[in-house]
Amino acid sequence: MLLRDVFRPLKRLSLAAALALPALSLPALASAQCGGSFSSFVNGVAAEARQMGYDQNTVANFLSGVRQDGAVLKADRAQGVFQMDFTSFARRLISNNRLQTGLSKARQHEAIFAKMQRDYGIPPGVLLAFWAFETDYGAFQGDFNTLNALVTLAHDCRRPELFRPQIFAALKLYTMGDFNPRTTTGAWAGEIGMVQMLPQDILDNGVDGDGDGHVRLKTSPADALLSGAKMLRHMGWQAGQPWLQEVRVPAEMDWSKAGLQTRLSPAEWQRMGVQPRSGAWQANLPASLILPQGRKGPAFVGYPNFNVYFEWNQSFTYVLTAAYFANRLGGAPVFDAGNPEPGLNGGQMKSLQKKLRSRGHDVGKIDGILGAGTRTAVRAEQQRLGFPADGWPTAALLGNL
């Protein structure tokens, strides 16, 4: 099974991607047509494509045979794995075999990784980690028909502003000879290739790394890795800067300072008792203290490049695990799991989210997942109740609410 089909919330539609679609203004994207009968929806897509300037035969051939895929909708609604805590999630994804395979891939494609770092400033471990998590180094790239997936999700009305523009990006790739609507397959959300890129990402950041005149993300490691690196650079990655460093925290401090909302210098963290687990601070850059399982669990600081990870994937747990695995591929030791207080199960987390919402907090969807909104709300309620405000929900907090 494709790792990304299980472990994936959706990527954002970047502003650049939106602006790259000439026939759709941003307001139009926000209110893109969806729903109704599937055939009428497809006819609407075809009409819009013709308005963009594509000829009737091209549009007809592109959309011929497109169908609604119920398996895509089922996958879109099954994201329960993100209810796992960071330690469990990281141990599930990062096996010794996956680590050793990554190191082997680094040696096998040494020239590609050298070019990637030289041209885009992306260290090998960063792309190796994404390559591992997205498709197990290209072994499992997904068997969903990409066009069916994109049209199904655009029609579904949950996120038309993301998926409808991707249909036209795929149409553009089709006219370039880099997309076959009948045979191109990938993840359930329309992402293609070894590092799983949406059609608009391919248009914006695709690199012909092997010089064959095409961007083949499914079969060419050079194309896939360099395209992924260019996309990260486009998202804001700063060359030569670190992304994540493991630290130790004191027994007591102002825990409300933890979380991505606060960025302090290493000197400021050090004055509060935060220290690198080993060695020195990696950079004199603003950093956030990350306590994925509270003050008694693992502890890291995230530098500015860490925030770029959220442009690739919106799950806090996925992002932290990918950033940590990049460190491991670069030689870092296994993190100290500490002795965190037991967290909440899925049902308890949903109950907590309902209580937080009733108190006026914006926790997003009641899904049992400890996302950024829920963490912020938890920290606020911990402060109100006099608990250590480390953003980690416990049974004691739930009981007191």
UniProtKB/TrEMBL annotation:
What keyword terms does UniProt attach to this protein?
Signal
User: Taking every annotated instance into account, which residue ranges of this chain make up the domain Transglycosylase SLT?
Assistant: 38-326
N-terminal signal peptide: 1-30
Per UniProt, what is one GO molecular function of this protein?
peptidoglycan lytic transglycosylase activity
User: Which terms does the UniProt entry file under GO BP?
Assistant: peptidoglycan catabolic process
Domain Peptidoglycan binding-like residues, every copy: 346-398
* Gene3D superfamilies (UniProt xref): 1.10.530.10, Bacterial muramidase (1.10.8.350), PGBD-like superfamily/PGBD (1.10.101.10)
Recorded hits in InterPro entries, A to Z, give: Lysozyme-like_dom_sf (IPR023346), MltB-like (IPR043426), MltB_2 (IPR011970), Peptidoglycan-bd-like (IPR002477), PGBD-like_sf (IPR036365), PGBDSf (IPR036366), SLT_2 (IPR031304)
Any Pfam family the entry gives: SLT_2
Which PANTHER family does its entry note? LYTIC MUREIN TRANSGLYCOSYLASE, MEMBRANE-BOUND LYTIC MUREIN TRANSGLYCOSYLASE B
Record's protein name: Lytic murein transglycosylase
Native species: Litorivita pollutaquae
